[in-house]
Amino acid sequence: AAALFATLAWIRSSGAFFALSLLCEALVGVGLACVQTSALQLIARYYPEATSWARGVLENAVGVGVVVGPVLGGALFHIGGFSVPFFVESALLVAAVVYVSFVLATVPVCDEESESREEKHTSMSTPWSSDSGGGNSADEHG
After folding, report:
1. How many CB atoms are closer than 10 A to CB 89?
2. Among 47, 49, 69, residue whose Cα is nearest residue 58
3. Cα separation of 102 and 28, whole Å?
4. 56, CA 20 to 30 Å: which among 67, 82, 125, 128?
5. What is the pLDDT of residue 42?
6. Is the dihedral of CA 103, 105, 107, 109 positive or negative?
7. Cα–Cα distance, 87 to 57 (Å, whole number)
8. What is the pTM of this model?
9. In angstroms, rounded to a whole number, what is the distance separating the alpha carbons of residues 103 and 89?
10. Where are the alpha helices (DSSP H) in the chain?
């Protein structure tokens, strides 16, 4: 979508520019939703014991991007005009996809298939379970 935004510089009709800008912005929104959903799933998969920490890192990175992005985009606009910030963003996104693809190929995945969700649920300690030192089991309260 960023590369499409870059091509809008050559559209002379203000109505067409506005309509295509809205379309591009909608595509950006869909892409952002996909990236955010994928990132959260990858965090849960690769960092099951440190999910909160990893989500914090993700949100900090988003915050840095929100602060630095407009400044960098404005500087690129000043240097090269309307299309340059969008072409640079497109190139950075392609580089990020390639980089993440190689990084994820080398990171071991936590093996959660060996223990099903149901087994995890039944093995959890509760205040009334017999293994928690409470003396009573959940069946005795029934």
Report:
1. 19
2. 47
3. 24
4. 125
5. 87
6. positive
7. 27
8. 0.63
9. 21
10. 2-7, 14-46, 51-80, 83-106, 117-123
